[in-house]
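We include the pair:
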Amino acid sequence: MIIRRNLICIKSKDKLEIGELLLYEPYKNTLLNLKDLCIDINVKDFDPVAKVYNGLLSTPSNIKEYYESLLGVTSYYHHSQGGKGKYIEKKLALCSETCSPNIELSKLPFWLEHPLIYRKKGIFTQDGLSFEEKRLLRTDQWDWIGGNKDVNIDIGNLLIEDKTIVLVEIKNRVDSGGTAGRREIWTSEKFGAIIGYIESNTKLFRKGSIEFSLAKLLELFKIKNLQIYIGVLFDKCDSPATIVSDKNNGFYSSSKQGFLDLLKQVIQSSTMKLIDKDDEALQM
């Protein structure tokens, strides 16, 4: 019996469907790394603790190199999650023409001015842009003056008619990211940084000689609502995640601690007013 295999990486990119195109680059990168791990023993460097823990020091010499190669390949494949995260973001962004993956705060003006180009670049990389689109990207007149403290959010939805921006940080499962990772979303790494910029009215953007805070930039583009969410997709059984499943098998407690820290930041602010909150659903 002949079994047909869909070998994406041997196909011409211009003949791939959209779903396959999203997989092409991460697949190619994974295959190249796996090839190096299989044929070059020096690519995977085990530290002294790993050598003891994985039994490499006591492995017989006749199978030692094979064992190291096998361990390198399997550990890379099971622990490399970066490509999967980007794939999820791009797939979700394809659900709506107003959605874009990888929203960088420093690039917010360009997203607001050219949402379709920003979306196209986020999904297909700069290689997917036309000459004119690349020119607009290259000649962008907005400067970031916020220093090194940029903020990246997984997905953004720009709803022009509703004058609303929706930002979402995605977690694949309730047990993704770890304790510190979940809490940091709420605090200085993500949401807390955005709230801090709004509260302090720090100048972050410049166009020509005029400088803008985040609040003033949103006002310039007639954005009246900024909504920020954490989106957890699945529980440990691959069913849609719920607060209950996050409490039982995830990092809900870390999320709640981060939420309470952010809530405290808002309450103590002299420029922000808390209208309503829900400590259980982690909403304010």
